[in-house]
Amino acid sequence: MRNLSLVLLLLTLNASAQTPAVKTAQDPVVRTAQGYIKGTTENGIAVFKGIPYAEPPGDTRRYLPPTPHTPWADTLNATEFGAPASQPRGAGVTGSENCLFLNLYTPKADNQKRSVLLWVHGGSMTAGTGKGMNGHAFADNDDIITITINYRLGAYGFLYLGDVDKKYRQSGNLGLLDVIAALQWVHQNIAAFGGDPHKITVMGESAGAKLLSAVMVSPASKGLFSQAILESGSVQCIRDTTTAKNERGILLRQLGLKPDEAAKLLTLPSETVIKAQAKITAGIGGNSFFGPVYDGITIPEDAYEYARQGDIRGIKAIIGTNEDEGASFAPKSFNNADAEVFKLLFRDNEPMANAYYKTQLKADSPYTALVKTMTQYMYQMHSYRFAKALTNAGTPVWMYRYKYEDGQKFGAHHGDELRYIWDATRIANLPNADPAKKQLAKSLHGAWVSFIKTGDPNCASLPQWPKYNTTRKQIMVFDATDTVIALKEVYNDKDFPSAVFVIK
Prior knowledge:
Largest sheet: 12 strands, mixed
Number of strands: 17
CATH topology of the domain at 4-318: Rossmann fold
Strand content: 15-25%
Helix content: 25-40%
Number of helices: 14
CATH architecture of the domain at 4-318: 3-Layer(aba) Sandwich
CATH superfamily of the domain at 4-318: Alpha/Beta hydrolase fold, catalytic domain
Radius of gyration: 22 Å
Strand order of the largest sheet: 1-4-5-9-11-10-12-13-14-15-16-17
Structural class: alpha/beta
């Protein structure tokens, strides 16, 4: 089976493999609500790294929501990336509980009211960092302020303790609340960096898209952004409290603790907790183990119902998936008609996924059937469900499918689109690059830029991209040739619940 951590590492490397930024001696200084900060100049733009957008959440604030950072007296040096969130790294642990930092790339700190992009990284909600994406990709040539953030991960971002102590009733949504805190900081301060607080687009891929979808259905996020780009992820990450408690039980057992000893998590060394977390999330089952929780406060009601009621009507969205997402996770030597892997991925939802898999076996090889099942039940079905709820409530949505195979043996894998969005300038300037790759970089990056700046993804390099509706079901297919197609049907297993991962 392809190692999940290797997949995450490759996604990061592919997306951030851009020309290194060139620094100059001039240091920009900006006054924020918390105090002055000093950045650096790279490639002719102002860059501020490691800005603390909330108080450090460790020590006495472990498992508590983020709070605004207290003001500082002296000018804060913002020229180095802050520590990533605590997470496994090989057999050890990297990062810190003090991880709530953002990085900001702006063409100029003036009064131009530029569009703003805030990126939320993926990584199964257990790995990753904001610095994994290069903000120069949109700031240098597209005049878009670009922000990348860290948020709490794994057991420190999504472990539910609401039944242990009411003080921790939002503990299962701390990573989500961190994103909202970052958006609040941006909303309050972005004008000082040349940005418009009313033109903020959030964007994420994989776990980043899932987390942002959960942010969208949290009332606390209202008014903080106006647009969203969700690549390979939707509200399927949100789980019920029963599942969340059972996940906690698995971690406690790994730590050698009893079910009534959950309070000890408050004082255990971070390294001890993260190493135990690494063991229970090893392998493909870790892809869905952690995520936001229906805690009745942060996320008070069913995500689809919240969307159907029109509570997200003021937000525009691009939503899409890749043609063969599951190929990134499926073992290449797979030949098991019982598909034991579905138990790891879906737990109590396994029978429904397995039934679909067995249906696919009538026409496909076990490996191809496995990839199709993973793609549908991990990603595709849920994105279309969310799009349907949004569009039926009047929210403008543009749907896409990334289909470019890029010379691989089996299809368009999970995360393959990232390089054409974040590394578009380099690809476009390669002297011997495949014309199809250059065009793909131009169309994908161009559509995203157009959407961020105008609220409409249509641009000169694409055919007309219509809004999605459940009657015509038109989507943009990004491939060697970009085309708009009308789907004959959208698959939906009505027996499969909204959450991918369920432990009853």
